[in-house]
């Protein structure tokens, strides 16, 4: 799990809050709020993709809304445009029908306290468990945060690419020291889901821990959830994401594609028929991916004569020049390379031609991820990154090619 995985529940809840507010209203919620550090002024919330200013008078404010589901993710921010890198400037709370109370601190929105919502109470219980683990590794988390600031400052100062790239590698090394924390947080989260299957919070939380789970594990958690909440948009979206997990797993046919390689030549999956192919999902900006390339080169040199091919699928559709430079710099042009095929409607983040997105066809949500396909086009293994997966990949390849 990546460092951002620790905070992504909050960020993605903001996105879901916009999504959940679109349907026909059936119930109402009312927030009586107080805020310290701001006597008169404005804070902001969001409705149907629009910014809604909330007036603060004498340190008090009110937020009203309509909801057609049992729970609504209410986002409140210091500024009209949310700065996702600064968690102190926004919060997301789980409101329920009826009247609730929200206390804010203008200097740190993370200190927000909502009372009157059972679902938010569940969230606080989970936060306490997670925060206890994070405090054990506070020094390491602080180092990562400081390095992110160092990177932002370097970009703002227009430092050269060599400088910013070096900081990226520092960040990656610091994150690796947090692997024990990530593992503890994941284990604690899954225990919370198991112990609280009837909570709406468990449904929304599972969304952000699917990566690294098998389809059967995710389906097992989902099946245990409260049937009432399974009718919510969040639960339906979760069910869709779980179904997508059937793609790109061992035992199923590899997703077909028809594209052009880095040199502009046509390339399709069928071109690799009769050989084992390791599909490497990576990007020029992904430090762990780049750090793993020397090892991939060794594997390629050892097993290419025995029938192994490697195909690099890069998440660099908007950075083709950086993609090509990375391939050249890392010396990995010895195997085939393509872009994933991520496309957006011009001037927006609305995706188009999703069926042409290779990563979508293999259910790729994090980098690096590698998929091993056999000579018949069947997926035989999936490696989602980390030392354990890298070791398993080496063992699998050695076993496959030992008699060849």
Automatic annotation (TrEMBL):
Residues 1-25 form the signal peptide. One of its GO terms (molecular function) is antioxidant activity. The keyword Transport does not apply. Residues 248-402 form the Thioredoxin domain. InterPro entries: AhpC/TSA, DUF4369, Thioredoxin-like_sf, Thioredoxin_CS, Thioredoxin_domain, Thioredoxin_ResA/DsbE_sf. PANTHER family: PROTEIN DIPZ, THIOL:DISULFIDE INTERCHANGE PROTEIN DSBE. The keyword Signal applies. Keywords: Redox-active center, Signal. It comes from Flavobacterium phragmitis. This is Thioredoxin domain-containing protein. PROSITE patterns: THIOREDOXIN_1, THIOREDOXIN_2.
């Amino acid at each position: 799990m990546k460092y951002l995985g620790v905070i992504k529940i909050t960020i993605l809840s903001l996105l879901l809050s916009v999504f959940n507010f679109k349907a026909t209203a059936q119930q109402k919620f009312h927030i009586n709020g107080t805020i310290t550090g701001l006597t008169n002024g404005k804070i902001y919330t969001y409705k149907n993709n629009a910014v809604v200013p909330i007036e603060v008078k004498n340190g008090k404010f009110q937020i009203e809304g309509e909801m057609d589901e049992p729970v609504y993710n209410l986002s409140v921010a210091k500024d009209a445009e949310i700065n996702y890198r600064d968690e102190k400037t926004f919060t997301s709370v789980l409101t329920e029908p009826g009247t609730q109370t929200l206390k804010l601190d203008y200097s740190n929105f993370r200190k927000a306290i909502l009372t009157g919502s059972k679902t938010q109470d569940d969230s606080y219980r989970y936060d306490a468990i997670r925060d206890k683990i994070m405090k054990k590794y506070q020094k390491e988390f602080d180092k990562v945060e400081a390095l992110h600031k160092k990177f932002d400052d370097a970009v703002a100062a227009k430092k050269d690419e060599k400088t910013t790239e070096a900081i990226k590698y520092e960040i990656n090394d610091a994150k690796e020291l947090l692997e024990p924390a990530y593992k503890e947080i994941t284990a604690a989260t899954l225990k919370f889901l198991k112990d609280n299957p009837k909570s709406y919070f468990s449904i929304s939380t599972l969304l952000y821990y699917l990566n690294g789970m098998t389809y059967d594990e995710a389906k097992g958690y989902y099946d245990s959830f409260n049937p009432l909440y399974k009718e919510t948009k969040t639960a339906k979206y979760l069910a869709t994401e779980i179904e997508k997990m059937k793609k790109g797993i061992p035992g199923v046919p590899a997703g077909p594609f028809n594209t052009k390689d880095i040199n502009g030549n046509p390339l399709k999956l069928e071109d690799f028929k009769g050989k084992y192919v390791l599909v490497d999902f990576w990007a020029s900006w992904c430090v762990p991916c780049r750090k793993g390339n020397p090892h991939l080169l060794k594997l390629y040199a050892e097993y290419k004569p025995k029938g192994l091919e490697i195909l690099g699928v890069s998440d660099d559709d908007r950075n083709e020049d950086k993609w090509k430079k990375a391939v050249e710099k890392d010396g990995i042009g010895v195997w085939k390379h393509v872009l994933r095929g991520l496309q957006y409607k011009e001037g927006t983040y609305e995706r188009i031609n999703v069926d042409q997105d290779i990563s979508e066809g293999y259910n790729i949500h994090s980098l690096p991820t590698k998929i091993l396909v056999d000579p018949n086009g069947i997926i035989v293994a999936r490696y989602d990154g980390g030392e354990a997966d890298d070791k398993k990949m080496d063992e699998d390849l050695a076993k496959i090619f030992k008699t060849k």
